Amino acid sequence: MVGFASEWLKPRRDMSAFLEYLARARSRVDDALDRTVAPLGTPPPTLHRGMRYSLLAPGKRLRGCLVLASAELCRGEAEVALPLACAVELVHACSLVLDDLPCMDNASLRRGRAVLHAEVGEANAILSSVALLTLAFDKVQQAALRPRVAVTATRRLAAAIGADGLIGGQVADLESTGRGLDLEALEFIHSHKTGALFTAAAELGGMAAGAGERELRALQRFAKNLGLAYQITDDLLDFSGDPSVTGKDAGRDREKTTFVDISGIHGAQRLVDELIDASISALKPFGRRAEVLVAFAELVRARDR
Amino acid sequence: MVGFASEWLKPRRDMSAFLEYLARARSRVDDALDRTVAPLGTPPPTLHRGMRYSLLAPGKRLRGCLVLASAELCRGEAEVALPLACAVELVHACSLVLDDLPCMDNASLRRGRAVLHAEVGEANAILSSVALLTLAFDKVQQAALRPRVAVTATRRLAAAIGADGLIGGQVADLESTGRGLDLEALEFIHSHKTGALFTAAAELGGMAAGAGERELRALQRFAKNLGLAYQITDDLLDFSGDPSVTGKDAGRDREKTTFVDISGIHGAQRLVDELIDASISALKPFGRRAEVLVAFAELVRARDR
Question: Which residues in chain B are closer than 8 Å to A103, comparing Cβ atoms?
Fold first, then answer.
């Protein structure tokens, strides 16, 4: 496995071609998201303002791009994958609004702007987030999938959100705030809070391409490791704590145990390396065609270096 | 149309057979709901406690029973309709938890018990409600529908929840609190807050039975009128305001305009009569087979008499 990864990792790849690819994919996702929510002024206006404010806030759209790249890897069409990319970004936007609420992380900044509940009030923020989630499930049905695949994709998305996914992770996260955690507990939280949606993104991309079980399992392993690595790089970036870089409140997560607390900076970086190597290894069945996803993983590795 | 309705309405029907039917349907829905959410103690325990507390609170399960009765009317099997009945009840339970939150109606009692956020805290209440909603979409996929019908049913449910359904109605409701409303504005709120899910329930039942367009349209018209009538009877019951009957805080809705405020008790009762007559008229295409749904409508009419 290490052998396969090392083919790609040494010499360190030139990222510029991939960054151009990513910019194109991101702009495609952004355009589709813009068309997903009714224009400002559509009644009820506050709801649509709230939905647009959080969904269209400047963001990397990494999860949406992961859907597109995974579909492409499995020789699928971006057009089919695009509604699924929107679905995943809708779920992500919903989860950010909820995470920021006064009763949860009580944040004030998100993606460099005031959090949604500061803009439209708590009730409208909650209702907007639930509307985004609902729209995510609708989006899956809009994709030109075979109906049987749509059913599977819907279940896959629901599983990534529910008690065994995002929500389960968020509950565990809230319960652990202010308490010391060991590495296992922290990995549980983040494999749910971040890993579950990354994994669903890659799998949904594969489903858009009609991928088989073996390919879906490879994508799953890739994205699971990538998602956890991504969260650790988030902790590393939060540790440096410049809100102009992170777009979040500096040190907001300080009362939460982070990977840096447990493993130190170098230990956390080593963990990222291991996870990224594992994610790249998982792509072995795809051979050279996996180039884009390998670059994806390398980009995550490079986030905090 | 009035002619058709009057066939059923005079002489006033004996409800006892229907009440037995309803008790059986309700117990069927209750059993299915109990199996829908993981048992108490499943991790994360607080989340599952929250989900079970709100979903399994004593309730009439009218919406779930409406799914079953509509499926039966279209000669469908209850077994196929049951997961859809659960889906509709899951959405309903989610909406009640959100309605009760401090930033919304700030209620303390629901279905005769403390509201969910008083039991598990606000964050867990919100996360439980979102988990219930997610589970609703999963439930639709579990029904033994043709995959193409599952896609349509999922879209139908999403539409009933989103900006043109429950959530749109709740936003309009919050915006109007403390302000006088006219009948049209009040009907807008409740045709969304209550009517949308009643309508989806009847249509989903029809879909479970493979009903055609004409039947689905009839069910839609039936349930739309029924839902609004139901809300008005709620206002009439709230007006009398005995929490031991309503299970809610007495007079909690007093700062909101109600149908009783606008039309008076007799005017509101007359409105209920008109809506119930219209809902029964909509069943004309089904002929005598519509007996159960006619009784359903009569039960709603009788709620406040």
Answer: 121-123, 126
